[in-house]
Amino acid sequence: MTRAASAWSVLLALVATLLVGGASAAAAAADTPGPRAQTILHILDYVGVDYPGAVQDGKVTDESEFKEQVDFVSQTLTMLGELPDRPERAALVTQTRQLLALVQGKGPAAEVTRLAGEIRWAVIKAYQVPVAPSRAPDLRAARELYAARCAACHGAEGRADGPAAKGLDPAPTNFHDPGHHHGGGDHGPPWRGGGRAAGLSADAAGRAGPHRQRCAGP
User: Fold this and answer.
1) Given Cys at both, which of 39, 85, 133, 176 links 199, Cβ 3.0 to 4.6 Å?
2) pLDDT grade, residue 190 (50/70/90)?
3) If pLDDT is split at 50, 70 and 90, which confidence band does 139 have?
């Protein structure tokens, strides 16, 4: 199998994993963290990977990306307060406030990535969030979901060449570009599907860019 074909297969598997995760979350009891905790993990992974592209040496290099990072960490802080009470929650809130201050202060990328990762794994441990699907992904359903919600911008084969991609800023991700796979954890690639799809408020998702809203679907 070629590298391109392999990357495409992985992408479909990730989309299918979202389908499985969504079904599992819908069946969760009301006193469990459900999809909210999964959303927090996606945000933290996204921040850890993309913040270095927004700030370098204490200076903002991409204003829209920087505002997005601030919005996402702020939203994480809000969502942590909405999770079921756990002995670890207070410490998670404190750490996330530290992360927000670090991002707002244009702190070093390495520190932001480290702290975001620490919080993410602490959430996984505190709320026993599954980080793998409970059953084999349905690749047929994944193809249908991708075609319906992603292909218009990301292209039929994930090369960011869809008919709606022209003029978008930031541009859609090319899933065949190795540069977009560095540093991402278990929740990294699926998160790039869109803020509203992952449960962000409409305000925060709006700041994430029009192509991410498009991916979220109705």
Assistant:
1) 39
2) very low
3) confident
Q: Does residue 27 fall inside a structural domain?
A: no
Q: Tell me the C-alpha distance between 11 and 179, whole Å.
A: 15
Contact 30, 82 (CB under 8 A): no
Domain tally for the chain?
Answer: 2
| Residue ending a domain, choose from 98, 127, 156 | 127
- State which residues form the domain around 165: 3-20+138-216
Domain endpoint, select from 65, 95, 127: 127
Contacts of 213 (CB under 8 A, 6+ apart): 194, 195, 196, 205, 206
